[in-house]
Design goal:
Number of domains: 1
Radius of gyration: 17 Å
Number of strands: 0
Oligomer: single chain
Largest sheet: none
Structural class: mainly alpha
Order of helices and strands: HHH
Number of helices: 3
Shape: elongated
Length: 59
């Protein structure tokens, strides 16, 4: 569920964990491929934001 992008706090509630650390330690594991995907999403979003700002300045 965590890999699907579910909010960890929601997952904590569903699983009945009293502490978010239990949820995070149990259901969130990362590896190189996941880290690369997240950086690509971040980079893409950040690039789009910068590009939009530059375009707005030119208008």
């Amino acid at each position: 569920m965590a890999k699907s992008g579910m909010n960890p706090v929601i997952l904590q509630y569903i699983m009945g964990h009293s502490n978010i650390n239990v949820t995070l330690n149990t259901y969130t594991h990362t590896g190189y491929e996941n880290a690369v995907k997240e950086m690509q999403k971040f980079s893409s979003t950040k690039f789009d934001t910068i590009l939009t700002q530059l375009q707005n300045q030119m208008l």
